Please model this.
Amino acid sequence: MSDLAKKLEKEGDIAADFLEGLLDIADLDGDIDMDVDGDRAAVEIVGGNLDHIVGRDGEVLDALQELTRLAVYRETGERSRLMLDVAGFRAARRAELVTIAQGAIDKVKAGEPSVSLDPMTPFERKVVHDAVADNGLVSSSEGTEPHRYVVVHTAAE
Model:
């Protein structure tokens, strides 16, 4: 096992312990699944009724992810890029974003010089940028948080 894989597994273990403690304090049911996704630890809380942990548009999930990253930082002294999902919310949102990106890609390939999308979180923009690059086009992020958005262009622009 590589040093990176060991580091990411350790991050996942720390995150799981933190989240289990949080679930216990809040008296919530849920199991923790850990994985390594590329170059980051991935942790998911599954089971039970967890919609309130996701919040409106994933706002609570984003905050919980930051708290979890801070818990990892406290233990390791290194900044974590850990991804947290709850009840498949991010996985479903990723699929939805790929569909949105594909719509913009299709418009640009049909001749529109560029297509601007609605404001998105950094996670959402990354998913769109990856989908655009996979289709041979380019994209950029414009605007300032929390109104930062993706613009899809032809590669020549």
User: Anything to note?
Assistant: The mean pLDDT is 92. Strands lie at 31-37, 40-46, 83-86, 114-116, 138-142, 149-153.
